[in-house]
Design brief:
Blueprint (H helix, E strand, L loop, with lengths): L8 E4 L3 H13 L4 E4 L2 H7 L7 E5 L7 H11 L4 E6 L4 H9 L4 E4 L5 H31 L10 H13 L6 E4 L6 H10 L8 E5 L5 H9 E2 L11 E2 L1 H4 L4 E5 L6 H13 L1 E2 L8 E2 L3 E6 L3 H6 L5 H7 L2 E4 L10 H16 L5 E2 L1 H9 L5 H15 L4 E2 L16 H7 L5 H23 L4 H8 L3 H10 L18 H6 L1
Parallel strand pairs: 1-2, 1-3, 3-4, 4-5, 6-13, 6-14, 7-10, 10-13, 15-16
Antiparallel strand pairs: 8-9, 11-12
InterPro entries: AAA+_ATPase, AAA_lid_NorR, CheY-like_superfamily, Homeodomain-like_sf, P-loop_NTPase, Sig_transdc_resp-reg_receiver, Sigma_54_int, Sigma_54_int_dom_ATP-bd_1
Main location: cytoplasm
GO molecular function: ATP binding; DNA binding
Length: about 475
């Protein structure tokens, strides 16, 4: 089964018995442990960037646990700190939390699991924060491309092409499915060009009738048609010196195609009903979700206009072909809509992110944006979970392996294999628990896995048995633990 990275834990306690006990408990769970019996040395050790969680005693000579907590948080605010105390009071807990502690443990320990589970939760919180920070850094890097987001090979190629064509005046044709961000690419080209201080005008060619489209694009003179009560400039004139973005160019009627061709060839427009042309200096960027080459062959799109538009082509990949961009996009939308809703939603759980990554996204980035906005509005927690996603994301994997493999066929092999393996492992663990009447110890024996490791797997895959209760420390767990208890 897949192994996850274990948290590196620093344990600081001047009591050698407790220090040994906690170290053994955490090492048995697979955590690398640095054990130190001096608070001052512990402060230095906590500066190690590989330390994820610190467990420290609240009363120590030379430097108190509270002072050590504040010192650690000052140097490493990202580290999760768990306090240990034999004198727990409400005031102590409040003071520790205010100073930045994640949680606290009371000595003597009633059971082993209280220690390991608290550390596991702190480690998971640290991992979520690290992931969020990494995504933030990636979002900062991409900010030079306006609102275009992606770190996949396909999107890096798009960024490179945008960078190259921005400094020319050539016509650009952007192709891609609805919702892939074609207008964002057009805006990125414009705002990185020498025309950035001039107008950027966008028009959806499929949203208007032929008469209205021609009037909008080219303008009209008074009396040219019913309702033309005065002279009006068209969008080409409004965009003079800048860029016009013609979205869904494939839906333009044949007569309007002829007029567009004149603009591209002669650099001039003629208002509807006018005799004299007007010179314009406009860069044209067009976009379509249809195959213009096929439309040309079928006689639905003028061949000469096609070649005028198709000087430089940018193909935007659908989101299902770049699943590695889903976490980055999801985090971007999470931050956006959490701010708009004024809600403290800071992350997405591993299960929810897995469900998002595995989805086919027929609506592309626009669909993902809607899903995240919905989740932010509905969740009552700081972290979005599967239950906050639309019902389709909460469905259990199909038992039919053929159906499951088909649903992953749009992903790269390595990622599809990883997701399929996780789905198998989750189903295996659930089935094993069911077969053993939800008894964790029996299921672990049947799997041939040590009980503590089996419990860790259940937690990793978020599968819970009804009998998963903390166990009382046994004599064979360590003489030191007996003494500490």
């Amino acid at each position: 089964m897949n192994q996850v990275k274990r948290a590196k834990v620093l344990v600081v306690d001047d009591d050698s018995v407790v220090l040994k006990a906690v170290t053994q408990i955490l090492q048995r769970e697979g955590h690398p442990v640095v054990a130190i019996d001096d608070a001052v040395e512990g402060l230095t050790a906590a500066k190690d960037p590989t330390i994820d969680v610190v467990v420290l005693d609240i009363k120590m000579p030379n430097l108190s646990g509270m002072d050590l907590l504040r010192g650690i948080k000052a140097d490493r605010p990202d580290v999760e700190v768990i306090m240990m105390t034999a004198f727990a009071t409400v005031e102590t807990a409040v003071e520790a939390v205010k100073a930045g502690a994640y949680d606290y443990l009371t000595k003597p320990f009633e059971n082993i699991d209280e220690v390991s589970l608290t550390v596991a939760k702190a480690a998971e919180r640290k991992a979520l924060k690290d992931r969020a920070r990494a995504l933030e850094e990636a979002l900062t890097v991409r900010s030079q491309f306006e609102d275009l987001i992606g770190q996949s090979t396909q999107m890096r190629s798009v960024f490179k092409l945008v960078e190259t064509v921005s400094h020319s005046t050539a016509t650009v044709l952007i192709q891609g499915e609805s919702g892939t961000g074609k207008e964002l690419v057009a805006r990125a080209i414009h705002y990185r060009s020498a025309r950035k201080d001039k107008p950027f005008v966008a028009v959806n060619c499929s949203a208007l009738t032929e008469t209205l489209l021609e009037s909008e694009l080219f303008g009209h003179v008074k009396g040219s048609f019913t309702g033309a009560t005065g002279n009006k400039k068209g969008l080409f004139e409004a965009a003079d010196g800048g860029t016009i973005f013609l979205d869904e160019i494939g839906d333009v009627p044949p007569a309007t195609q002829v007029r567009l061709l004149r603009v591209l060839q002669e650099g001039e427009v003629k208002r509807v009903g006018a005799n004299e042309p007007v010179k314009v200096d406009v860069r044209v960027i067009a976009a379509t979700h249809v195959d213009l080459s096929r439309a040309k062959e079928q006689g639905k799109f003028r061949e000469d206009l096609f070649y005028r538009l198709n000087v430089i082509t940018i193909d935007l990949p659908p989101l299902r072909d770049r699943p590695e961009d889903v976490p980055l996009l999801a985090h971007h939308f999470l931050k956006l809509y959490a701010s708009k809703a004024d809600k403290k939603v800071t992350g997405i759980s591993p299960r929810a992110m897995e469900a998002l990554t595995c989805n086919r996204w027929t609506g592309n980035v626009r669909e993902l944006e809607n899903v995240i906005e919905r989740a932010v509005v509905l969740t009552g927690n700081e972290v979005i979970d599967v239950e906050d996603l639309p019902p389709g994301f909460q469905s259990a994997p199909q038992p039919d392996s053929t159906v499951e493999v088909f649903s992953l066929a749009h992903l790269p092999y390595a990622q599809a294999k990883r997701l399929a393996m996780r789905a198998f492992e989750r189903r295996y663990l659930s089935a094993l628990l069911e077969k053993n009447n939800q008894n964790v110890s029996s299921a672990a024996r049947a799997a041939g896995v040590d009980r503590s490791n089996f419990r860790r797997l259940l937690k990793q895959y978020e599968v819970a048995g009804r009998s998963m209760k903390p166990r009382v420390a046994q004599a064979d767990d360590a003489e030191a633990l007996e003494a500490a208890s």
